[in-house]
Amino acid sequence: MGLELYLDLLSQPCRAVYIFARKNRIPFELRTVDLLKGQNHSDDFVQVNPLRKVPALKDGDFTLAESVAILLYLARKYEAPDHWYPQDLQARARVDEYLSWQHTALQVSCTRAMWQKTMLPVFLGQRVPPETLAATLATLDRCLQLLEDVFLKGQDFLAGPRISVADLVAITELMHPVSAGCDIFKSRPKLAAWRQRVEAAVGEDLFREAHAVIMKAKDLPPADTAVKEKLKPLAQLFL
Ligand SMILES: N[C@@H](CCC(=O)N[C@@H](CS)C(=O)NCC(=O)O)C(=O)O
Fold this sequence. Notes:
The chain has helices at 12-23, 43-48, 67-77, 89-104, 106-123, 130-151, 165-179, 189-202, 204-215, 225-236; strands at residues 3-7, 29-32, 56-59, 62-65. The protein is an alpha+beta fold. The chain has a 4-stranded mixed sheet, covered by helices on one side. The protein starts with a strand and ends with a helix.
């Protein structure tokens, strides 16, 4: 069996992996893991990723979790064009710097914003205290400011003059709050111009396709009781 990618495009790190693989014409079998059905807890999936999270990769007997590790594995194995993850020591270190920062900063606030605006109230019927949402959006705003002031300072992309995996990881995160109705680009022309550049570099059709599921998340019908029970432990993490 060749390369298998276990994804649910509702998930932002899955979208980064999906776009990277498709954009670089990496052949893979898509194994959809439906998070809302709890398929990440199935016996079969746990064999692939005992951490029970997507994305996950299987390449023959080799399995791998964590989107950043997966992106770098794919970039190296398939010798993706240099700009995605440059060979140059310091250019690569800039990409690594962003990837290290985002996990505890942008990923956290984008995930919380989407859950607090969409998944909890709309899908699971759970009230989110306004002050909780306000605190999340304030943290998100501070992250957006850092994107503009630190990472995008004087350059077109987050880690240099050309698109890299850092930009893919960032844009797929940012589309999470966008899908929930947060107009995060409105008063941020610098970030909005960067988004246009990233979309153009990825290709608008692929970008739209990868985000189709998340952009419809706010129209999901309310979950039934069994799904609510299943997602309860996860949902509590975002309150
Ligand atoms: N740091 C991980 C995050 C993976 C992650 O949290 N995946 C979520 C979807 S975005 C998941 O699978 N959640 C299911 C669960 O926790 O039950 C990465 O970047 O791959």
